[in-house]
Amino acid sequence: MWKSRSRGADSAAQLTPEARRRQHARLLGAHVRAMRAFLEGADGKDILIAEREMLTPLFERCFGFHSLCLGPGDNDLLSLSPIRHAIHWAPEPALAQSPSTLICPLTQLALPDESMDMVMIHHLLEVAPEPHRLLREAARVLRSSGCLIIVAWQPMSGEGLLRLDPRRRHITPWEGSWRTPAALRDWLAFVDFEIERIDYAGFHLPGLRLRHGWLERMGRRYNLPLGSLMLIRARRNVGYVQPLNAKRSRVAIPGVAIGQVTRLHSRDNHDSRSSGDSGKV
């Protein structure tokens, strides 16, 4: 399934920007539907349990006003965070779960610069048509003191061994390109982010269901890099420290209706408004 779509993505360079945008939306829409169906099954629910156990202690150290989740979005993982205003993304209006869902290309997020306190990329980096630009956009909308979280599949694991069968690489959840932590570290360094910690979960033998038994407890206890899931926490590599008593203003991000958000907030318009505002100062 994903194989034929990926071939079409290879020829995207020959399309117009608008046709390429529609093609990427179709590809991501198919992935989101398939991933939501997987997460609703028994294996997917086990995966969500492991992810919640990893995210809960991490979210306890994340504070702010706004958070953004880029991913399938059929689970409310951001509800674990003390950040109350959570924004979800969808590739097309049919997949939106609320009127304020962000519907736009991953390479042109319809959000102001440095407006998010936390951005989570949930099982999306593997299938994103332009993953480097996705990371660049996530870095753009994240505050200097914000936290970037990546939840991804880990290739050196039981699930990774199952992908040795070429037929599985085009079926959810084994589709896309699974990248090693070292590769993601280099990618994040390119957008001036530094990995603070990597946690692993989802320890089980190939072909067997994740049971959350002694193997999972042992792997989580020693944080062995053999789990099917990895959670990367990264922050911007800045050369200054913000004072603890410094006050910052709340950024107003109104809820955007579905019809308004279908990629009509272009970066060019945003840049022109920013330059116009700067000229009034």
Defining traits:
single chain; 281 residues; alpha/beta; 7-stranded mixed beta sheet; 7 strands; 36% helix
Termini separation? 53 Å
Spatial strand sequence of the major β-sheet: 3-2-1-4-5-7-6
Content of β-strand: 15-25%
Number of helices: 8
Biggest beta sheet summary: 7 strands, mixed
Give helix % range: 25-40%
Dominant shape? globular
Average pLDDT confidence is 81
Please provide the count of β strands.
7
Protein structure class: alpha/beta
Rounded to the nearest angstrom, the radius of gyration is: 19 Å
Uncertain residue ranges: 1-6, 256-276
SSE order: HHHEEEEHEHHEHEH
Report on this model:
It is a single chain. The chain is of the alpha/beta class and 281 residues long. The chain has eight helices and seven strands. The chain has helices at residues 2-10, 17-40, 42-59, 131-141, 158-162, 181-190, 214-222, 267-280, and strands at 66-70, 85-90, 102-103, 116-122, 142-153, 193-201, 229-236. Strand 4, helix 4 (131-141) and strand 5 (142-153) form a beta-alpha-beta unit. Helix 1 packs antiparallel against helix 2 (17-40). Mean pLDDT is 81; it is low at 1-6 and 256-276.
Q: What's the short story on this structure?
A:
This protein has 281 residues and is α/β, with parallel strands linked by helices. The protein has helices at 2-10, 17-40, 42-59, 131-141, 158-162, 181-190, 214-222, 267-280, and strands at residues 66-70, 85-90, 102-103, 116-122, 142-153, 193-201, 229-236.
